[in-house]
Design brief:
Chain lengths: ~475, ~200
């Protein structure tokens, strides 16, 4: 099988589909026509694409939590509890389902029933099957999205879309490199082409499913150009398969100027590359993830981190914010903690909404740098694939010419090392094998040197470790303690 | 905790390490600090510390794993790092093959209660039943009372249970201390395979 960025043939897709639906006994209920009927019957207020389009037009910022528990009744109650406080709903899928371990997920369901509390970190939608998922969709009054981390999400997609979920998060890169150890990139990209093609087929039946590549990647000091490249490539791959409603994302880095610039650059870059590839008929929106790294344990301090994210997101005029909770340091949050995060975010968004859009020279300059970095990497990826972006990105990961920091995946080189500069913006200490123009390298080098001088120490991996731990220890930059 | 039965040791050790961290002198530049003849005689018996490190189950949170690896290595502990998504079997086999002093299990994603159960029994069945077992991270779903979480994992046979935001320098001291104590306790009765959870001996 030679991977390329071409729309999957109908007969190839259909043959594959038959096999996929046998992956777990619930697959047999995922009938495409029934799915189209279910999706078409949803009112506009429960269609993700419609709610996003309305927010885009009106300039509103939608809030979405993350949440999922093992059992249907408890999960439905969780969704109903969240509904008054958010604009769009999630359903976070458990980690066993993400690895297609449906038998382990079943054990988790059984043990959760016995224990009277969820022992899974999400909702095992495949095990629950189409009718239970449809019952969930029926029970709630807002659009609901599948949020997961599944390298092979074909069966999960078949079941949840058939049941009326109207948005699907993920992608062949963004749900492999941060989420898996041994899955090959060729396979995960190819499996996501299937998911995108499935969504393309719904689109052809008049059902618009929203597709959201996972923006923050490893959530740990990811330089904006790195996640932007992934978002654009996954956007292009989805468009090729016929998806038309895309939400591109980015995870908060922490420096306000860099975060606002990154969101503005993301929109410009996406339109640039989509148009260049010949796509004009699509809907684009953006999503900003509040800080994805380590959180302070103290709930008041955690709320401050949440509010900084809300501020940056609203200033950057994003379509949607993925909201964290004050329980983040302790793992999977309760309903109450989730509501607290949403309320803090709402307050901040409301207070920022009417203010003048900040447009300083520093933001413009930062956006220009991000755009130049993305262009350098994209040009190389196109060249490596002789114009085919799927082949190009696989080759680039293979030889380290594209690289994501702090990834567990063996398919990723892991040489790129980020570090904060003296103002807390994420810079690159070591580009590894990534080809980057000399002036950009010099810019990063100088910014890091400025911090090293201020701290009177050499930049090193220990400085990176300090940065990774900084926010949970109440600061943005991992400065050495005063002697 | 063990620190209570040997007052001061871990605390002193921790203060010294914290001092070095605050001075921004990293561990690879430190020869092991000597503090008193009692300490020295204990240290003198020890050649090295070796631990197996990994994130258990289907968990792919790698960042803390990398930091622990770095921190433990800098503190002079040999780390056999199995990375993320490590099965109980892999932990046990690595500890056996490497003749490690301890297994350090991390779990961040919430499935700890399911994934960690049975590792002690697996070690016992394979002749390394007295190995030190540590576990740490976001071990259960939701924010629960730490005392309850700790007892749950102690009952599973883990010697020590760590919360996510524990002090790394202190943990390193506790670890070395536990390994030292275990070596001392083995002197003279090599064949005895101890096992009572350390933290339960309060």
């Amino acid at each position: 099988m030679e991977l390329n960025n071409k729309r999957l043939d109908d007969d190839v897709f259909d043959a594959e589909r038959k096999e996929i639906l046998t992956g777990w006994h619930t697959g047999k209920d995922a009938e495409f026509d029934a799915g189209v009927k279910q999706q078409s019957a949803l009112p506009k207020s429960k269609q993700f694409s419609a709610v996003l389009a309305k927010a885009e037009v009106e300039g509103n910022t939608l809030l979405q939590p993350r949440a999922g528990v093992a059992l249907l009744r408890e999960h439905t109650a969780l969704m109903l509890g969240l509904t008054p406080h958010c604009d769009v709903l999630p359903t976070t899928i458990d980690a066993y389902t993400r690895l297609n371990r449906y038998e382990d997920a079943q054990k988790g369901i059984d043990r959760s029933r016995a224990a009277g509390t969820s022992l899974l970190n999400g909702f095992p939608a495949v095990n629950h099957g189409v009718s239970s998922c449809a019952a969930l969709v029926e029970s709630v009054e807002k659009p609901i999205q599948v949020r997961h981390g599944t390298p092979d999400a074909r069966l999960l997609g078949e079941i949840t879309l058939c049941a009326g979920f109207s948005s699907y998060e993920g992608g062949g890169i963004s749900y492999n490199i941060p989420y898996a150890k041994t899955v090959s990139l060729e396979k995960s990209i190819r499996d996501w082409q299937y998911c995108d093609r499935l969504i393309g087929r719904y689109e052809e039946q008049g059902v618009r499913i929203n597709r959201e590549p996972f923006g923050p990647l490893t959530g740990t000091l990811v330089p904006p150009f790195v996640s932007h490249v992934v978002a654009i490539i996954e956007g292009l791959l989805a468009l090729e398969q016929g998806a038309k409603c895309l939400t591109l994302g980015y995870g908060q880095a922490g420096n306000l100027v860099q975060d606002v610039a990154a969101m503005r650059a993301l929109r410009n870059l996406a339109h640039h590359y989509f148009h260049k590839a010949g796509f004009c008929d699509y809907a684009l929106s953006t999503v900003f993830h509040q800080w994805m790294g380590g959180f302070p344990e103290d709930e008041a301090q955690a709320t401050a981190v949440i509010c900084l994210g809300a501020l940056a997101a609203r200033m950057a005029e994003v379509t949607k914010i993925i909201v964290k909770t004050p329980h983040e340091a302790s793992g999977v949050p309760t309903l109450e903690a989730n509501i607290a995060g949403l309320r803090a975010t709402r307050q901040m968004v409301n207070m920022i909404a009417d203010q003048t859009r900040p447009d300083g020279e520093d933001i413009t300059q930062e956006a220009a740098i991000i755009e130049a970095e993305v262009h350098a990497v994209m040009a190389n990826i196109y060249a490596l694939g002789n114009g085919d972006i799927a082949r190009g990105v696989v080759t680039a990961f293979g030889n380290g010419q594209f690289d994501i920091p702090f990834s567990p995946a063996l398919a990723n080189c892991g040489k790129l090392t980020p570090i904060r500069d003296n103002l807390g913006a994420v810079r690159v200490f070591d580009f590894g094998e990534i080809p980057m123009p000399t002036d950009i390298r010099a810019f990063h080098h100088d910014k890091i040197a400025e911090r090293a001088k201020a701290e009177n120490r050499e930049a090193s991996f220990d400085m990176v470790v300090d940065d990774v731990r900084a926010i949970s220890a109440s600061k943005l930059i991992g400065r050495p303690a005063a002697a | 905790m063990l620190a209570l039965s040997k007052p001061g040791y871990s605390t002193i050790c921790s203060e010294i390490l914290t001092h070095y961290i605050n001075q921004n002198i990293f561990f690879d530049e430190i020869t092991m600090p000597s503090h008193g003849p009692h300490m020295k005689s204990e240290r003198a018996m020890l050649e090295s510390y070796k631990v197996v490190l990994g994130v258990i189950g289907s968990d792919c949170h790698v960042v803390g794993n990398r930091i622990l690896d770095r921190f433990l290595s800098n503190a002079g502990i040999e780390v056999v790092n199995l990375g993320v998504m490590v099965s109980q079997e892999e932990f046990m086999l690595a500890a056996q093959a490497e003749n490690a002093d301890a297994i350090l299990v991390s779990s961040i994603y919430g499935h700890g209660e399911i994934d960690c159960q049975g590792l002690r029994e697996l070690c016992q069945e394979n002749g390394i039943g007295d190995l030190l077992l540590y576990v740490g991270g976001n071990l259960v779903i939701g924010k629960k009372d730490w005392k309850d979480v700790e007892s749950l994992f102690l009952e599973m046979g883990y010697d020590r249970v760590f919360a996510p935001n524990m002090d790394l320098a202190n943990a390193v001291c506790v670890l070395k201390d536990d390994i030292d104590m275990q070596r001392i306790s083995r002197l003279g009765h090599n064949s005895t395979r101890r096992h009572a959870p350390i933290a339960a001996v309060i």
